[in-house]
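Final report, Chapter 2: Outcomes

The project's central promise was a pipeline that accepts a single protein chain and returns its three-dimensional structure in a standardized token representation, suitable for archiving and comparison. That pipeline is now operational. To close this chapter, we reproduce one record exactly as it appears in the project archive, with the input sequence first and the structure output second.
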Amino acid sequence: MKDIKEIGEPVYSSGLENIYFSETKLSYIDGENGRLYYMGIPIEELANNSTFEETAYLMLYQKLPTLSELEEFTKKLKENRDIPEILLKEEELIPKNAHPMDVLRTIVSFVGMLDENAMSKKEDEIVEKSIKLTAILPTITAYFHRLRNNLEIVRPDPNLNHAGNFLYMLRGEKPSDIEIDIFDKTLILYIEHGMNASTFSAIITASTQSDIYSAIVSAIGTLKGPLHGGANEEAMKMLFEIDRNYNGDVEAYLKDKISKKERIMGFGHRVYKAYDPRARILKDLALKLADFTNNRKWVDMQIELEEKAGPILGEKKIYPNVDYYAASIYYMLGIPFDLYTSIFAIARVVGWCAHVLEYWKIGGRLLRPREKYVGELNIPYLNIEQRR
């Protein structure tokens, strides 16, 4: 039998499921056993021992940093945090009711336009641009939130780490060490997750030899969708629905949703056929934060829903995903619902940039998939007078 490549016969897979188009060292998802690795390191080890800054370095340089390398990397992140006044003026012109993801998409595009060397494909320059993007996405998000609420913007604090600085700029007050630590760990868990939809969008754009800013704009637009990055926002809205419309009766809500064959937000993942390892870590963090804030209402509701849904959804290998417990964590941190997806982007920008960098390094080809044509052929053209 001739090889498929030799005869050019296309392989059809709905949603491109189980289709490989490239190779990577960045991450590996063992969906059957519920395991995730960054550069071969179990996600549990990074969540317990690393920091966002160190994990970001790991992704961009494909190795853990030495102390001096980490200090230099962290310094660069801090130096790139603030945005030029022209970008601040642009944010001030944006309608206050704009979606925060639209703001991210617009300002990142503006940043790319200001970079006279945007089209460079030199590895060291792409890394520097990646550091800049990682540093400014939190600032863009925090500034817009302050501006839309008629609050004075809070400039970055060089004495705070990446996670702590964002919470400070967003809320206007210094966060506690526990809040910083928990938020830092959530960012680590969102940094990278293989060839998901937004990463694929970034790679498609990068495969045309466009610039990295355009690739990130593509990824942001894709992440905005409720079936991807918007899921954590929907998971928190679900808890409010249970509280308001079902008087907190989790079982009644669950029965109603199942009878209507509607989705339980925060459950299920295309890749995982076991418990999402990130969700397991986030569950513990949610409980820790709930005890710290003296408000276990939302986490207790989530745990009850998980326990009652387990016997039903578990048979279908549907378990809580990363967005389920992240939702209550962000709420307890005082982050508005509509910023949840932006938080996702603040972390995932590292993975996007790392994949673009890796794809360019291996000389990745222009992506050009095919469609399966299912229409008729040789249909005659009818003049307009003959059409009905």
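Archive annotation: The longest helix spans residues 123-148.
This record, like all others produced under the grant, will remain available to the consortium after the project formally closes.
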